[in-house]
């Protein structure tokens, strides 16, 4: 009886606090005057638009929208307003750096606790948001689920950050992407928990379930990191098990044979372009498999890329575009580049897209529309349309004419709250002394 009573009181309190938060949010109306508004789907600019935001969502958009008297007005009449950007492949709790580990990230797990890496991830998330990335797919190498902690912290309302679609641990055959010594492998340390071993069908099922249990939103597998990589049948088992909870599977692919198996199995997305040739691109286009090419530019200080390797990357991206493979802007930008934020490093990857001769409108589609689709957020966030979450950014120039204007993001709104204005981060509203959106958000 007593316990029941307590539960009812608790339920009432919880319901009331949720309602309070909703009411508070619903009273906040913001009207944004957009001088130019980019519609990436159509690849065109609309002029003199008004975007009405109520609480966390967009209420109305158009040239003749009435501005309510109680609305806060934000003047972006000299800017181009556009939907937020997506990086479809990053590692926010990993920092690849020449010092101290010579870009070999074995050492990261030895030197940095998961707790420290979660704090790095929080910082990197803020840096991404400041550059206009409102959605990031965080694809593993996050210690012991620092990526889940990051997602929860953002969703519960502790800190600002992009919407995080995280993979949890990368699942692979024994050793993952590393080459552990027998001591490391048998004692199950150092490599672990960066990778989750799954060498049999039972282990594949269990590994997927472990990631689901610990908060993943997408499954990431090493298709061919080792000579004993996965067969098409094994990849199908991953896909089936993930599908039970509505999740998709991304495969790290580095060989032609691995690409063939992943494509035959009907994987959702393929990370990296090293295993992809013209034939694989043709098959990916036929099957609608997303290409997360991680197209590394040759201009990241401290991370040299040979001219041959860069030319290969550019040619591959060019071929994928010509064959109409669904493209995502995916950077894998876990690189530390002195003087640049994580978001600024990601935008350096525009160089590869420009060198591949991809038209600006299609680069912008990859960075927005395709990003929402590959992250499966396209039903709720992305387009600047009534009913969608209010995630939007503003740049001084016209990105259809000059992609580099994306490097000068002046304004960022996330979930209806202003995060950056006049080029300066103003994140105070995102910090709270408690989980304002609810501690039950897991
Ligand atoms: Zn990666």
Task: Give an account of the 3D structure.
Mean pLDDT is 93; it is low at 6-25. It is built from 14 helices and 17 strands. Helix 6 packs parallel to helix 7. The longest helix has 26 residues, at 2-27. Helices cover 35% and strands 21% of the residues. The strands form four sheets. An eight-stranded mixed beta sheet has the order 3-2-1-4-14-15-16-17. Strands 10-11-12-13 form a four-stranded parallel beta sheet. Strands 5-6-7 form a three-stranded parallel beta sheet. The protein starts with a helix and ends in a 17-residue tail after the last strand. It has 442 residues and is an alpha/beta fold. Strand 12 (269-271), helix 9 (278-287) and strand 13 (290-292) form a beta-alpha-beta unit. Bound molecules: zinc ion. Zinc ion (ZN) is lined by residues 89, 91, 139, 332.
Bound molecules: zinc ion
Mean pLDDT: 93
Shape: globular
Low-confidence stretches: 6-25
Query: Helical content, roughly?
Result: 25-40%
Profile the largest sheet. Answer: 8 strands, mixed
| Assembly annotation | single chain
Tell how many strands the DSSP assignment holds: 17
Relative strand content: 15-25%
Radius of gyration, taken over Cα atoms and rounded to an integer in Å: 22 Å
What spatial order of strands do you see in the largest sheet? 3-2-1-4-14-15-16-17
Distance from first to last alpha carbon = 29 Å
Alpha plus pi helix count: 14
- Category from helices, strands and their pairing: alpha/beta
């Amino acid at each position: 009886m007593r316990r029941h009573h307590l539960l009812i009181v608790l339920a009432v309190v919880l319901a009331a606090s949720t309602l309070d938060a909703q009411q508070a949010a619903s009273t906040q109306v913001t009207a944004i005057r957009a001088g130019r508004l980019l519609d990436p789907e159509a690849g065109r600019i609309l002029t003199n638009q008004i975007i009405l935001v109520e609480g966390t969502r967009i209420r109305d958009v158009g040239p003749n929208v009435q501005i309510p008297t109680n609305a806060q007005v934000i003047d972006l009449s000299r800017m181009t307003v556009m939907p937020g950007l997506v990086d479809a492949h990053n590692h926010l709790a990993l920092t690849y750096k020449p010092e101290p580990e010579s870009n070999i990230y074995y050492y990261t797990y030895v030197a940095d606790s998961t707790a420290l890496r979660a704090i790095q991830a929080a910082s990197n998330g803020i840096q991404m948001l400041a550059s206009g990335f409102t959605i990031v797919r965080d694809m593993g190498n996050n210690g012991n689920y620092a990526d889940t902690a990051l997602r929860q912290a953002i969703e519960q309302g502790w800190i600002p950050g992009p919407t995080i679609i995280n993979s949890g641990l990368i699942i692979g055959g024994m050793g993952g992407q590393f080459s552990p010594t027998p001591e490391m492998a048998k004692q199950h340390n150092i490599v672990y928990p960066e990778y989750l071993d799954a060498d049999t069908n039972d282990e594949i099922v269990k590994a997927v379930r472990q990631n689901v249990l610990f908060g993943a939103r997408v499954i990431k597998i090493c298709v061919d990191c080792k000579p004993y990589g996965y067969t098409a049948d094994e990849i199908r088992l991953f896909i089936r098990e993930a599908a039970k909870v509505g999740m998709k599977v991304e495969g790290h692919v580095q060989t032609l044979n691995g690409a063939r198996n992943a494509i035959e199995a009907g994987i959702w997305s393929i990370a990296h372009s090293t295993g992809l040739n013209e034939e694989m691109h043709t098959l990916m286009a036929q099957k609608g498999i997303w290409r997360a090419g991680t197209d590394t530019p040759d201009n990241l200080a401290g991370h040299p890329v040979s001219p041959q390797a860069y030319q290969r990357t550019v040619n591959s991206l060019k071929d994928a575009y010509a064959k109409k493979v669904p493209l995502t802007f995916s950077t894998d930008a876990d690189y530390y580049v002195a003087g640049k934020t994580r978001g600024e490093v990601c935008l350096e990857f525009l160089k590869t897209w420009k060198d591949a001769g991809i038209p600006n409108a299609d680069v912008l589609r990859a960075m927005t529309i395709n990003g929402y689709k590959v992250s499966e957020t396209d039903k709720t966030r992305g387009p600047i349309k009534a009913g969608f979450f209010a995630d939007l950014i503003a740049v001084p120039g016209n990105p259809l004419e000059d992609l580099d204007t994306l490097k000068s993001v002046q304004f960022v709104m996330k979930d209806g709250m202003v995060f950056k204005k006049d080029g300066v981060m103003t994140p105070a509203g995102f910090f709270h002394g408690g989980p304002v959106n609810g501690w039950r958000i897991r």
